[in-house]
């Protein structure tokens, strides 16, 4: 299982999983994307690269996910897939692909990423991230 949605009274809460920090972060993007667009399949027509920094794993995850909301709001970009993701020293670089939001019918209910109940837990060969989205 790559991610699962958890019970929450007012917002959307999920956990993402991976064998590495990169894989868990990538799966967090896919959970966020599902909340934004539902089950709509997005084509990989446009490629983008970006870098974000954080002071720790939680702030890095926050900044990473926030970038996707920024791209949607400012450029009308919807994520299709994460193609390359590297994390080192609380710096993340990503190559992603997606398409223009105007080519799809969906209703984005996500207002913001929150730090509420957020965590990133790493062990030897497993990583779990938890995020609450303000909807």
Question: What do these coordinates show?
Answer:
The chain is an alpha+beta fold. The protein has one domain: Archease, Possible Chaperone, Chain: A, domain 1 (3-Layer(bab) Sandwich). 27% of the residues lie in helices and 46% in strands. It contains 2 helices and 7 strands. The strands form 2 sheets. A 4-stranded antiparallel sheet has the order 1-2-7-6. A 3-stranded antiparallel sheet has the order 3-5-4, with helices on one face. It is globular. The protein starts with a strand and ends with a strand. The mean pLDDT is 96.
Query: Count of helical segments?
Result: 2
Global geometry = globular
Q: How much of the sequence is in beta strands?
A: over 45%
Order of helices and strands: EEHEHEEEE
CATH architecture: 3-Layer(bab) Sandwich
Rg calculated over all Cα atoms: 14 Å
What is the overall pLDDT average?
96
Give the topology, please:
Layout: E1 3-6, E2 12-18, H1 21-37, E3 46-53, H2 57-75, E4 77-88, E5 91-100, E6 112-123, E7 126-134
Antiparallel strand pairs: 1-2, 2-7, 3-5, 4-5, 6-7
